[in-house]
Amino acid sequence: MKFITRDTDYALRALIFMSKTLRQGHKRIVTTEEIVCAEKLPKVFLRRILQKLAEKKILSSYKGKTGGFSFLVPPGKLSLACIISVFQGQIDLTNCFLKGKICPNRSACSVRKKIKVINAGVIKDLDSITIQELSKSR
Amino acid sequence: MKFITRDTDYALRALIFMSKTLRQGHKRIVTTEEIVCAEKLPKVFLRRILQKLAEKKILSSYKGKTGGFSFLVPPGKLSLACIISVFQGQIDLTNCFLKGKICPNRSACSVRKKIKVINAGVIKDLDSITIQELSKSR
DNA sequence: TTAATTGATACTATTTTAATATCATTTAAA
DNA sequence: TTTAAATGATATTAAAATAGTATCAATTAA
Asked: Considering only the top CATH level, what class is A6-89+130-136?
């Protein structure tokens, strides 16, 4: 069962890398090229990922020579749930379980209610894990 | 975010249909054709799904004229978690999160531990939802 | 013997995901 | 002013996963 796509995976790697360099205080703005070298990710694909993070106001982007990306949301405030939702949409297990014919009567379905509880738990937990934590835990 | 595949979806529909006819006491053995008519599912595809359920000892299958499928595991003992695992493998969020480079040091990773807890909760909850329940809740 | 069923396997089509190619725009520095 | 190095945007291609079809063999009750 696949829970995160490669988009999300690469975004996490890039952000964790950025967070680590931030901790060391050596860098503010990181280029795509730097991340590609460090993490061995496909360049143009990664650029689109970083662009999307900038678009979502998670990163700031700077164009031109000496340009690159920096955190807009500090890594300590940036959760796993947030990054997943950027690339895979809002986490909503009730929407993928039992939709359509399987569960036409949404409001009356007891199963849906149960899954809602599961979902809330998952989101709460994923919300509590930050990029900063991830960058320190290894 | 897709949590169940079409395999699982169709399997659930078929099993729920079978469970409903079982309740009414009219039928024991159900044919693929019957399910296809009632649920509008692609026939050959569904056959493979039912075959797999038989192979996994969830259904019994009977060949020849008047053949078909019946429950081997009673629907009250058949959980959502079980059906999902047949078509999508064991539910293991820790295995899809943070694998490979992202989390090379499995044992030391605090995040993995957190996700393990999430995972256990999800499985426990999905294990408590049965086909019988699903066939009654709508 | 036949019709209706499942068993098994090979194949095709569709959709999603991943990755590349390319050109425009921006900007600091030579 | 020019140039190099960066992001912005978009079109295209490639690969993988998912979904579905086709077909024939084996079984079995009528």
From this structure: mainly alpha
